[in-house]
Design a protein that fits this description.
Layout (H helix, E strand, L loop, with lengths): L7 H12 L3 E7 L22 H14 L5 E7 L7 H18 L6 E4 L7 H10 L1 E8 L3 H7 L9 H12 L8 E8 L4 H15 L5 E7 L19 H11 L4 H5 L12 E4 L4 E3 L13 E3 L5 E3 L1 H6 L3 H4 L2 H5 L28 E3 L9 E3 L2 H4 L6
Parallel strand pairs: 1-2, 1-7, 3-4, 4-5, 5-6
Antiparallel strand pairs: 7-8, 8-9, 9-10, 11-12
The structure holds iron/sulfur cluster.
Iron/sulfur cluster binds next to loops.
Length: 378
């Protein structure tokens, strides 16, 4: 597949943002358990809720890092985050309090949820703590949705999810919140998603807190997804028709500046419930994604080369490699030219970005060894 090459100016800007030591992005899974078993889910549900010891270590880690930061982002991940509601509320509030104490900019925290437990009471608790952007998946109207999004016991889920959506629509919280409805597409639910878009238009389009995002189901591993008929054709026209029926354009895309995937950012980490550290939230069982672990004292230990390789797109300059490094990422043996001992979390301020000098070299980072004890790479 061909891929757009990113302009040097944009690449440089994104490189600096993605390696800045004054920013930290965390995706956190407080549990990998889920009460659903969606037929395309790539998770194996083997890890339960984060232990108290790991949770304490996570708080220590953030407490140590926060004073050095200018900005901090928090995204929840699962399993189903609401199965660990107490920790998600407590940790979000803890991070917000720390950020306020040190004058660190912390935008709203985000959370994907299957919405089975997103009652008004739970929503209010989360919004109060600082989780203010929710992503909820719908696979069509009831018949289609219930084929692919079932409970762990195989029961339908549409009615409960939709009931909760209508209930939270009636919520007036002190702080604003947003709900992005992700309309999953595959070959066998297109008609149902088109009909759902009309239903959603009637129920939610007038409320600016709700928006939709039609999105094709992808194969991110695991056996279940292999039995699903993934979209064969380009889905742009289907997505366009879904937006039209909902009654709004693609607002999210219109507002958002393009950004690299968080897995490609060196100042972004994914903390799993057992204290392991990863880059990608999809490649859960890939050895190259297991880059380190959180220690009890709140320090982290990680394999720098493994971590840096997730940002290989800064070397190729290709948009696809920075949009999603999951598919084409080189394996461990591949040397990376901008390797630096301290790139991930500490002093990268002196790193310099130089445009490629040869066609295959890609962008090259040089650094001042004497000042920063970093290896020179040119
Ligand atoms: S709700 Fe999410 S985590 Fe749970 S089974 Fe479905 S896709 Fe997987």
């Amino acid at each position: 597949m061909t891929s757009t090459v990113i302009s040097p100016a944009v690449l440089k800007q994104k490189f600096i943002q993605s390696s800045s030591p004054t920013h930290l992005g965390l995706a956190v899974s407080a549990t990998e358990q889920c009460n659903f078993r969606c037929t395309y889910c790539y998770e194996d549900f083997e890890i339960g809720e984060m232990s108290d010891a790991t949770y304490t270590a996570l708080k220590l880690f953030v407490a140590k890092r926060m004073p050095q930061l200018k900005s901090f982002t928090l995204s929840w991940f699962g399993g189903e985050p609401l199965l660990a509601l107490d920790k998600t509320v407590d940790f979000t509030r803890y991070c917000n309090d720390l950020a306020a104490q040190y004058g660190v900019r912390m935008p709203r925290a985000t959370m994907p949820t299957n919405a089975s437990a997103l009652t008004p009471k739970n929503l209010v608790a989360l919004v109060d703590a600082g989780v203010r952007h929710f992503m909820i998946s719908l696979d069509g109207q009831a018949d289609a949705h219930n084929q692919t999004r079932k409970t762990i016991g195989g029961k339908p889920t549409f009615d409960r999810v939709y009931r909760n959506l209508l209930a939270v629509r009636a919520c007036r919280t002190e702080q604003p919140f947003e709900i992005l409805l992700r309309l999953h597409l595959h070959e066998n639910n297109i008609a149902s998603q088109l009909a759902l878009a009309e239903q959603l238009s009637a129920d939610f389009a007038a409320d600016s807190r709700f928006d939709i995002l039609p999105i094709a189901v992808g194969d991110f591993g695991g056996a279940p997804v292999k039995s699903l008929a993934l979209l064969r054709s380009n889905s742009d026209s289907i997505k366009g028709e879904i937006y039209r029926r909902f009654g709004r354009g693609n607002q999210a895309a219109a507002q958002e500046e393009w950004d690299v995937c968080y897995a490609a950012k060196w100042n972004h980490l994914f903390i799993r419930p057992d204290g392991r550290i990863s880059k990608c939230t999809s490649a859960l069982n890939r050895a190259d994604n297991d880059i380190g672990r959180l220690l009890e004292n709140g320090e982290i230990e990680f394999d720098e080369q493994k971590a840096l390789l997730w940002g290989f797109g800064f070397q190729t300059g290709k948009k696809n490699d920075l949009d999603c490094p999951f598919f084409d990422k080189p394996q461990e043996q591949t040397p990376i030219r901008f390797y630096s001992k301290t790139t991930l979390l500490e002093n990268t301020a002196a790193l310099e970005f130089a445009p490629a000098r040869e066609a295959n070299n890609g962008p090259v980072v040089t650094s001042a060894v004497a000042e920063n004890n970093l290896p020179v790479i040119s």
